Amino acid sequence: MPDQNVPSHRSRDDGRRVGRPRSAADPHDRPDDGYGPYPRDGHATRGYGERAHAGPGRTGDGYAGDGYADPRPGPRWVGPQGDGVIQPGRSTTDVLPDLDDDEDDDRRRRGRRRALVALTGTAAVVAGGAALAMSPQGAGLIDSLLGRGGPDATAPAVTDGSAARPSGQQPSTVRTYTEQNESYMGSRAGEVLKKNSPVTGKSHPGPASAAAETKVTVKTVLAKDPIRHLAQRATFGATPKVLADIKRMGIDAWLREQLDPDKIAPTPAELRLADLKTLRMSIPQLRERREALDADGVHADDETVWATIARQIWSDRQLFEVMVDFWTDFLHVAAYFEGSRTQRASFETEVIRKHALGNYADMLVAANRHPALLTYLNQSQSSKDKVNENLARENLELYSVGVDGGYTEADVRQAALLQTGRGVREDQYVYRPERHYVGEVRIMGFQHANNSAEGGEAAADAYFRYLALHDSTARYIATNLATRFVSDTPPRSLVDRLAKAYTAGKGAIKPVLMSLFSASEFWASVGQKVRRPMEYLVATYRVLGVSAETPAGYQHSNPNRTAFAEGLRQIKGKLEELGQFPAGQPTPNGYPDVYVAWTSAGTMVNGWNEAGNILTGNRKMFTYRKPQELVPAPPATAGAYLDALAQRLVFQKLTDGQRKLILGIAGVQADTKVDATFNGAIVAVARAILASPMHHLR
């Protein structure tokens, strides 16, 4: 692009080029050209505008004209066979990764593997105990979970675009963040989940009273403990400290503190983010130091992802980080795109983090004045003489009213004209009056004379605020918040109340969250959300008490990256392998947030193995608590020790069946005398607890 002087791609220190995350098993993949899925040649025909959504097991989400078609709407849990599909007639143990490579006894290893599959399958890896479990052998897991084999009742409808539109594009048919969630929930597995979700509820004077007065009636394997429930939903994973804080302060006071994150002191790990060289650099500073940073292998887009991971694991501002993740998926700009090295970090800071608990109208206006969004969606290529509709369409379809929000193709065309003049120069936002279309515009009830080129910027800002406060936007954001915090199939009663709170607060986020936490639907939804892969791994680091402190004597050889930064880089690499990392979705619709979008036996096993690696302290640059030290003064018998360890790791009792399975993994009986190492089986036992539904459920 003429305003950028950015290499189209770069190499990682392990020899792989950084771009969109992908699996080597993906037969539809193409070499990373550094540009991502959007056209960068100034032509707006085909490509971007013709993408079509595809869920698991369907082809689509392809970009016509460039030969690329990804069978899923972004990174996915990839199994050992590339798609996680267990072939009929094959044993689970033939296709699942090895769970116990360090065992010499093959028979015992196979037994542990089967026990873990049974623990997470027959014992129900489900939201709320619904019948979504594996069979004992795991056969047909993916088909049964994803509802393959039937017609797709949620296929996108064709819109009324034509080649006569200003940019000549065809209409976009990508699923929005809400719509893609709904498409997954249209599967058979989704129908099962719907039957177990709260249908209705009411508002209470405050969160504490709502918690006290709400009876949990859904079927679930989780303990019906409101403090545990709040800790799991409002953070990236409960810890003994979080639970103790909520008990000590009370639910209302704890939430008030979380909603005022500036008053929460940074943790030692957050202070260590100073190790990341680019984190506090402005766009001009990044441009000025680009060559030196490149020579050292230091890139701001990488370090932004690493910092987000660190905050998710170690920050005490947990609700704020959850909302940062929510908005990152909602108003989504991918971590990597042409220009991301200089632009993406600032978008994280000045748009998402600045407004995550503020006002969405302010966020949308700020986003449309930020070079990262404008570059990502080709807005700098748009002028009054050659209009590009990409950003105009996504402002409607993804970032405000939603695909069913009531806009037409004429609205998209009018919005594209109004947004002309906005662009990027030297990686900074610039408004060029000479490129702005002048003339009256009408968009979804918004009307503006737009009668001067100089006034075009203010006219578009007024339009963005109008969109942000539109009734359809209120409902769209309410639906997504309810999906994130309550259920994959959020009750309409709750969505209605959240939308009203949003409208009454003129886009303010905190009142909407307080309305959500004061709703009986939230407190009744125990066990109704499953962690996505990033959340599972982050929660595992949190509950095991891993410290960001580098142990004395650790030898680190990279002069351009501290041990702490190297550890974060490695965690990001594991998350990329699992299919989800902060802002990792390459397309602008963000990651889906429903269980059936993420099911894969292979990735679950990969996560369990990583839990085992964390238990054994595999990343030596961090400080670990030995697994035999998780329970102070452990009981002398296996059954009692297991009960104490479960309480420490998942904060509740195991079922009798789970207890029996895990004791079997250790090769002991409940009354067997054991030492602090569980007679050498402590890692296997702890890992099995972390493979249970209680740790998989959000």
UniProtKB/TrEMBL annotation:
<feature type="region of interest" description="Disordered">
    <location>
        <begin position="152"/>
        <end position="178"/>
    </location>
</feature>
<dbReference type="Pfam" id="PF08811">
    <property type="entry name" value="DUF1800"/>
</dbReference>
<feature type="region of interest" description="Disordered">
    <location>
        <begin position="1"/>
        <end position="108"/>
    </location>
</feature>
<feature type="compositionally biased region" description="Basic and acidic residues">
    <location>
        <begin position="10"/>
        <end position="33"/>
    </location>
</feature>
<feature type="compositionally biased region" description="Polar residues">
    <location>
        <begin position="167"/>
        <end position="178"/>
    </location>
</feature>
<keyword id="KW-1133">Transmembrane helix</keyword>
<keyword id="KW-0812">Transmembrane</keyword>
<protein>
    <submittedName>
        <fullName>DUF1800 domain-containing protein</fullName>
    </submittedName>
</protein>
<feature type="compositionally biased region" description="Basic and acidic residues">
    <location>
        <begin position="40"/>
        <end position="53"/>
    </location>
</feature>
<keyword id="KW-0472">Membrane</keyword>
<feature type="transmembrane region" description="Helical">
    <location>
        <begin position="115"/>
        <end position="134"/>
    </location>
</feature>
<dbReference type="InterPro" id="IPR014917">
    <property type="entry name" value="DUF1800"/>
</dbReference>
